Amino acid sequence: MKISVIGCGYLGAVHAACMAELGHEVIGVDVDQEKVDLLAAGRAPFHEPDFDDLLARGVASGRLSFTTDFAQVADATVHFIGVGTPQRADGRGADMRYVESAVDSLLPHLADQAVVVGKSTVPVGTADSLEPLVTGAGGILIWNPEFLRESFAVQDTLRPDRLVYGLSKDSDRAEQALAVLDEVYADIIEAGTPRLIMDFPTAELVKVSANSFLAMKISFINAMAEICDATGADVTKLAEAIGLDDRIGRKFLRAGIGYGGGCLPKDTLAFQARTEELGLNSLDFLTDVNAINERRRQRVVDLAVDELGGDVTGRRIAILGAAFKPNTDDTRESPALDIARRLEKLGADVVITDPAAGPVLAARDSAAPIAADAHEAVKDSAITLLLTEWDEFKSLDPATLNPAQKIIIDGRNAIDPTTWKQAGWTYYGMGRS
Ligand SMILES: NC(=O)C1=CN([C@@H]2O[C@H](COP(=O)(O)OP(=O)(O)OC[C@H]3O[C@@H](n4cnc5c(N)ncnc54)[C@H](O)[C@@H]3O)[C@@H](O)[C@H]2O)C=CC1
Ligand SMILES: O=C(O)[C@H]1O[C@H](OP(=O)(O)OP(=O)(O)OC[C@H]2O[C@@H](n3ccc(=O)[nH]c3=O)[C@H](O)[C@@H]2O)[C@H](O)[C@@H](O)[C@@H]1O
């Protein structure tokens, strides 16, 4: 089937390459010429495990191409919309300009009966408001939210936990769109992936409620970390013990410096803002979820300042990790970079290293110097902060590092305190008193 994917960022580029892998003929469309040139040459514009191979294979097969020209997708049967929906400048609702502009650019080229599939994360009510436009141009709209995690994006796209289809209330159109999307995902469905069918608003809400639940789970365990610190308890043991109850589950109970990234922070805020627009205060608790998350960053700053005698001016602080989580170069809303900025504001000489995001930061003229690796970053530092739990940081041998002072704050509870203490380090975890 001929497919277009509009918006070739972390979601769209991976989706395009995965659809080509499933045997479809795919054109990725983006307004960013530089990104399109890289992708068209089979080169990944970001770090995502397994993506490079898939992209190169797709481009080499001739089934995967990229363009900035919407006219080239005129004969596609299906168009996925995967453009960004970042936070608005006022910091709350989603900025829908990119979705609106993508739809405006696409509609003049839409073939009759073509299916437009919404994938971007949007405020509830978006599909209902887009449908008349798509229908007016001869197309059919379906909403198919995406649940992939960065760093597992390829695996999550090809083997998702579930497929969610949000359908129009017009049953003829709904049936037609459903059949086309089933054909696109035939291999995934055959592999046994559950496929859940619902209306537009429910599909939109599934996406933002899933992300809000995950954020809530992380903030819950981080609230427990605060209490553990005050009482001498250990949140890692607590998490293990409550997580073994399968009604609670072990995942997303890692206390630390909180959630970041291009999605959980903005989606929780946008969901709350949209709910308030609807006149509801049902999501007031998300204010606390966000506040707890913010406090985690300050907790690391306060610990570092205390350890350095109350004044960090001119002190060298090594930060291990810049990405919002390991195995990605994505630094959007990165807790590590936020902590770095807070310390810089206090006058510290921060030096950062990250296996994948380092070059990205360096290219963007990051204020803090970028070290080649952990050894270079830690050398002569007054304190070391481990803020993104990359394997290469977790497996560091503390005896081989040469700081000015052997003090480490493990913002992700990622390393073994005993090993580090035995090597002469003062160790602080998060919620481990
Ligand atoms: N990154 C992720 O892991 C996931 C993202 N999402 C959602 O998917 C959407 C995209 O997210 P990301 O890929 O992370 O964003 P991104 O910022 O990496 O990519 C967005 C892309 O859209 C392009 N774009 C903007 N306006 C355009 C237009 N009018 N026409 C064509 N292309 C245009 C941009 O140049 C950019 O390449 C968001 O709504 C996000 O919430 C959903 C699930 C997972
Ligand atoms: O809508 C999205 O874009 C995506 O957002 C998240 O995926 P992602 O942002 O890639 O990353 P996560 O693995 O969810 O991690 C988010 C943040 O929470 C932090 N985290 C995660 C788990 C945990 O136990 N503790 C914790 O602090 C991570 O370090 C990271 O900063 C969701 O997990 C995806 O299902 C969703 O599709």
Automatic annotation (TrEMBL):
Which InterPro entries did the record assign? 6-PGluconate_DH-like_C_sf, NAD(P)-bd_dom_sf, UDP-Glc/GDP-Man, UDP-Glc/GDP-Man_DH_C, UDP-Glc/GDP-Man_DH_C_sf, UDP-Glc/GDP-Man_DH_dimer, UDP-Glc/GDP-Man_DH_N, UDPglc_DH_bac
Q: What does the sequence similarity comment in the record state about its family?
A: Belongs to the UDP-glucose/GDP-mannose dehydrogenase family.
Could you list this entry's UniProt keywords, alphabetically sorted.
NAD, Oxidoreductase
The identity of this protein, by name, is: UDP-glucose 6-dehydrogenase
- Residues that bind substrate: 147-150, 207, 252-256, 260, 325
Q: Which organism is it from?
A: Flaviflexus salsibiostraticola
Superkingdom field: Bacteria
Name of a matching Pfam family: UDPG_MGDP_dh
Q: Which residues form the active site?
A: 263
Which Enzyme Commission number(s) are on file for it?
A: 1.1.1.22
